[in-house]
Amino acid sequence: MPRAKRETYMRGIMQGMEGTKNAGAELVAFALNEPDTPSRADFTYIAAWRMRDRSTALTQDNYFVNSTWLKYFDQVNARREAMTEEAMIQHHIGAGHGPATK
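Below the sequence we write its predicted structure tokens.
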């Protein structure tokens, strides 16, 4: 895609995300994934969002699924309600809900 079209496209995506922000999604940060990160995921960009509730997260998911974003970019998602350090430790050792994970 030519540079001018990419710029128009990205500005349109950012404008579209205003709707999810108005619904309670907070963009915490964008970042570039550093090449020397240990066990680096093969993705260039990172976005961290804080969602007001599960419904807001689903609204955000639907925005990207229904846009052309996934036509141009690979994306992975992770989502879960925030937990305390102790809850995370307990989950890791198998005392939480569900199986312990690596």
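The chain has one domain: 3-92.
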